[in-house]
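From the pipeline queue, job 12 of 40. The input is one protein chain; the requested action is below.

Action: predict structure.
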Amino acid sequence: MLSRKYYKKLAEIFKNGYVESYKNTYEKYQGFDGNLIGCYIADMQWELIRFLKEDNPRFDEDTFLKAMEIDFTKLKKELDKE
């Protein structure tokens, strides 16, 4: 069974992947729509969540998902400055 430290690190890794995929999409299409890489990351994320639930019945999916949330307004401002 994994510890909370590992759950946090996994969420951070996925969040970073999402951010980079949205940056790529924004640069390519001047918007966040059509993020295919993000769709693939989401597929992996849901597989990981299924595994983590099997590994630990007390695993909190909502907390894990919240840790991966992206502030799109902030990200857009950062990208517009570049």
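Job complete. The chain has one domain: 4-81.
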